[in-house]
Amino acid sequence: MSARRLALAAALTAGLLLTACGSEEPDVTIGLITKQEANPYWVTMREVAEATARDENVELLTAAGTSDVDVDSQIAALQEMTAQGATGILIAPTDSQALVPAIEEARQAGVTVIAVDTPTDPESAVDAVFASDNHEAGELIGQYAAAKVVELGLTPRIALLDLAPGIASGEQRRAGFLAGFGLEEDDPQIVGSIDTEGDQAKGEAAMAELLAQDPGINVVYAVNEPAALGAVTALDEAGVGPDEVVLVTVDGGCEAIKNAVRPGDIDATAQQFPENMAREGVTALAKHARGGAAPSGFLNTGVVLITGNPAPGIESRDVAFGVRNCWGD
Question: Which domains does the chain have, with CATH numbers?
Answer without folding.
Answer: 29-132+274-295 (3.40.50.2300), 134-271+304-324 (3.40.50.2300)
